């Protein structure tokens, strides 16, 4: 079919009377009219995967229907194809005067989704008979509906009035373009902005990151939905970890080919690039990480600390003002660790205070579950709790965070981890905290720290507990007290 207006278009309605609603109606549209335009399954019916339908459902089945959807997926997961099909659906199914716009960093990028949509039309007789195809727009005269392809320059977007806007490549799209698109909303009872993409190289300037943060900070905000497929939280796993690959790539071994990913592994691409583009992990650089990649994951056994075991408990809340962590480790020269609990400030809640009574109760519970020989904590901020628990005859032991002591304890933990002389449960929060910890070194020695002082920086409190618990658990194992420690009932 040649581009350009056709002399005559078929004015009859689409031969399609779905009884379904929501995402199921979209599926019915794809089953009836949409073919895969290229690549794997080319020219076959676009068979939507369950995870693709779930994404659409996050808009179509939500009540109220959100105004903005942010979807983060790795490269090659069919993002452009899915939003092209969804754009067509809204173009054909939203009724009179619907306007779909596709926007991306530049015209070429916006053209990707537009060209997929155009090709989908060409591959179906019923659709192509009804639509006029132009270089940068589709027009359906019978309903006066448009499907535009626009560059992301704010000037070209001013004054828009759309039913659906698709911002492709939202990991690199400009903030201005996104803002103009959001501001254009509100003129119609139903309008949706879908921002879809893979994390871009600059984590500080990304529409995608802004949406992700906004969704996390305001879970009550029904006007925004966020969906991601990522191995976020597993940054300490090796770059070729199969678990991370399948976690982040729903299309893997389906229309995303594993050998292509293998071929891209570092050193062919930089590790940070691979992690960002293929695992949707927000990594800038890995220098300064406490443990080399993969070391922590290899120490995981999947086992908890057995009830009744001789253990050390460690708790810490001094690294970030709003997080408190409680960790358990067996008294052994090769100790085994697990998270007991982490209390974290819900994002956006500025009135949050650490629930001290709850922390104390959790410590008491732990003392019933295991034979706790020592409860170790940095006395900073916890003096009263330590005194109260000590008054109940709990075995409190202060671990003052003096530079000399921390340097020794951090160094011991490091060499134990590297030499396989400790193990852990595989708890993901524990892994995330250890993965986020970096070494800082100054004249006073080395210690663990967060990567940045920002309140949004990833938490490392369990890693701080680990330094203390490891130090005390191994010390206890080699200096057993003669007197049996009284257990707390
Ligand atoms: N069910 C399906 N959904 C989406 N794409 C499919 C499906 N089956 C096969 N494909 C093919 O898989 C490929 C997906 O490529 P697409 O450009 O949509 O992915 P993308 O995530 O936008 O990639 P990029 O990260 O490069 O922008 C296309 O060639 C498409 O035709
Ligand atoms: Mg794409």
TrEMBL record:
Chain intervals for the UniProt region annotation (Disordered): 1-20
TM helices/strands, residue ranges: none
Annotated ranges, domain Terminase large subunit-like endonuclease: 354-473
Organism: Gordonia defluvii
Domain Terminase large subunit-like ATPase: 74-201
InterPro entries the UniProt entry points to: P-loop_NTPase, TerL_ATPase, TerL_nuclease, Terminase_largesu-like
Domain of life: Bacteria
Name the UniProt record assigns to this protein: Terminase
